[in-house]
Amino acid sequence: xxxxxxxxxxxxxxxxxxxxxxxxxxxxxxxxxxxxxxxxxxxxxxxxxxxxxxxxxxxxxxxxxxxxxxxxxxxxxxxxxxxxxxxxxxxxxxxxxxxxxxxxxxxxxxxxxxxxxxxxxxxxxxxxxxxxxxxxxxxxxxxxxxxxxxxxxxxxxxxxxxxxxxxxxxxxxxxxxxxxxxxxxxxxxxxxxxxxxxxxxxxxxxxxxxxxxxxxxxxxxxxxxxxxxxxxxxxxxxxxxxxxxxxxxxxxxxxxxxxxxxxxxxxxxxxxxxxxxxxxxxxxxxxxxxxxxxxxxxxxxxxxxxxxxxxxxxxxxxxx
Length: 320
Prior knowledge:
Number of domains: 2
Structural class: alpha+beta
Strand content: 25-35%
Radius of gyration: 24 Å
Shape: globular
Strand order of the largest sheet: 9-10-11-12-13-14-15
CATH superfamily of the largest domain: Ribonuclease Z/Hydroxyacylglutathione hydrolase-like
Number of helices: 10
CATH topology of the largest domain: Metallo-beta-lactamase, Chain A
CATH class of the largest domain: Alpha Beta
């Protein structure tokens, strides 16, 4: 064989070997299996708003919503979803320029390993728990208050915690705990574990109904989901954001059929009335909405469509 042909064969063999080796190397790369840190940031007038994910939880919503299970499954399928439904748990951080205010805290360690990511994502967003001045709780279910405790200590040692007096009276009552059905006692216990250390440290200040706390931040009573369920209105430079807590859980069902309630509602009739009132006004005014359980980041606008609503997510922004 001529030297030329031998050289050519060696080159082809070497190329094939390199391609084969590269393919093996690429195929061997492990999957990351984790998303980017869960935070999303926008401006609201002069305020900076950061949505922070605590993670997701799988909910058997076909068994929780107040309608036939098969109807729920059919409605989910139309949105390419299934049950159990992977459901977001969102919290919202407001930087007013002079105060750092947190709305809800996630579940902490109360709801299992897929949640409890709030502190990690808060730090990834550029803030530290010690910087937070005030924490406002929409209601005292575990996926909203569990994050108050981190590694058996106060997660926000420099913050004052606020919640409606009606929720405090209900969920922090040992008499209510003792008289509750066994399968409901965990909610009382979670609230007590989360709030009592702040009460002992004189860092819990409840309020009653509609209250203005800081310029541009006020509460609005929205009772029904719990006895003291509260939404928060944030306003800067004429721009408004409504942080609606648990007025909605399953957009694929409850936007089209707002009357459908969920087993978590303490008073299902009042929970629907609260949702109807807030959604109607939010759609009319065209204000930004932040929801605890709409898929992360849970920020968008409501548009009235007959007796139903459309959800218009916020546009992605790099905050130029």
